[in-house]
């Protein structure tokens, strides 16, 4: 299988400072931090599929502290109810009225831990929050804070007691990727850092929520040439035509890939998107949005390999074709 691309050299000063700050806590995960920041700046969400104990929670907490954001964690369990996520109205004997108590999803950064351990009904409680940035309870729609980022984790499906996420919910996540085990040298560095005190306790914010909101506005102004848009469409359409795919990526995938490209280009200090930006991001943005056919599964094909195959086959526009 082809090697995954390495993280880029970030040129935007705010983003560079933010990544450096998170790396005081998280060792050797530059690419994963970078992808998470792309999601934050483009209004997307991230699905992390990995085994317990590899640093998922620490990465999310470090990101939240680095921007002064409110952070909450939801531990998904089989008995968790939708109202435990979105909130519930409680009758007050003092005021003789119902008062809404916000659920943990109503914050800036949410860690939805082990999301595939809960029932589909409770999983669905996140759908509106992921797509619309709001939740509806008791017939009233409540807008979530901005910025808003959900970092959901799930155990591998082979683990017992898990409920596979439905396609509609998977499609709401901008990226899906794994953190993976550290190397021996990285694990030694982790031990050295936490020997006397955990670095998360001393981490300070380097940006404010206002900085992030301003950066999100600038990301939306990043130029996308028509040929780059066509390149995105061609990649997504190729997933629908691939011989190993039963159900290809949706038009929502095209939108997600374009927005991710804008954020990625902005992080490089550019005001325009390059085809290479799209090529780099495509595996992370598309692999969870496809269903392989039975023949492909029998031959041990994976969604990730299919996306890499698709990207290699689709023509890349030249620099002249993507100029302003």
From TrEMBL:
GO terms for molecular function: ATP binding; ATP hydrolysis activity. Keywords: ATP-binding, Nucleotide-binding. InterPro entries: ATPase_AAA-3, CbbQ/NirQ/NorQ/GpvN, ChlI/MoxR_AAA_lid, P-loop_NTPase. Residues 45-175 form the ATPase AAA-3 domain. CDD domains: AAA. Residues 238-307 form the ChlI/MoxR AAA lid domain. Transmembrane segments: none annotated. Belongs to the MoxR family. This is AAA family ATPase. It comes from Salipaludibacillus keqinensis.
């Amino acid at each position: 299988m082809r090697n995954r691309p390495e993280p880029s050299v970030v040129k935007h000063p705010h983003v560079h400072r933010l990544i450096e700050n998170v790396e005081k806590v998280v060792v050797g995960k530059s690419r994963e931090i970078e992808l998470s920041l792309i999601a934050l700046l483009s209004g997307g969400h991230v699905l992390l599929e990995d085994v317990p104990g590899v640093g998922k929670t620490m990465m999310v907490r470090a990101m939240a502290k680095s921007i002064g954001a409110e952070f909450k964690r939801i531990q998904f369990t089989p008995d968790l109810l939708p109202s435990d996520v979105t909130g519930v109205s409680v009758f007050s004997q003092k005021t003789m009225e119902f008062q809404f108590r916000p659920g943990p999803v109503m914050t800036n950064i949410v860690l939805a831990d082990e999301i595939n351990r809960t029932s589909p009904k409770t999983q669905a409680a996140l759908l509106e929050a992921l797509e619309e940035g709001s939740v509806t309870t008791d017939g009233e729609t409540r807008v979530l804070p901005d910025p808003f980022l959900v970092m959901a984790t799930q155990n591998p499906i082979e683990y017992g007691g898990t409920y596979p996420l439905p396609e509609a919910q998977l499609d709401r996540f901008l990226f899906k990727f794994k953190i993976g085990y550290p190397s021996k040298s990285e694990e030694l560095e982790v031990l050295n850092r936490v020997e006397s005190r955990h670095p998360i306790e001393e981490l300070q914010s380097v940006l404010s929520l206002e900085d992030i909101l301003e950066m999100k506005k600038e990301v939306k102004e990043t130029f996308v040439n028509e040929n780059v848009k066509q390149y995105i469409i061609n990649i997504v359409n190729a997933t629908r035509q691939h011989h190993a795919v039963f159900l290809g990526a949706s038009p929502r995938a095209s939108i997600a890939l374009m927005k991710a490209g804008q954020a990625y280009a902005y992080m490089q200090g550019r005001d325009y998107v390059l085809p290479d930006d799209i090529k780099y991001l495509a595996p992370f943005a598309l692999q969870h949005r496809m269903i392989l056919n039975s023949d492909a599964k029998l031959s041990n094909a994976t969604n990730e390999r299919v996306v890499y195959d698709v990207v290699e086959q689709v023509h890349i526009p030249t620099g002249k074709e993507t100029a302003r």
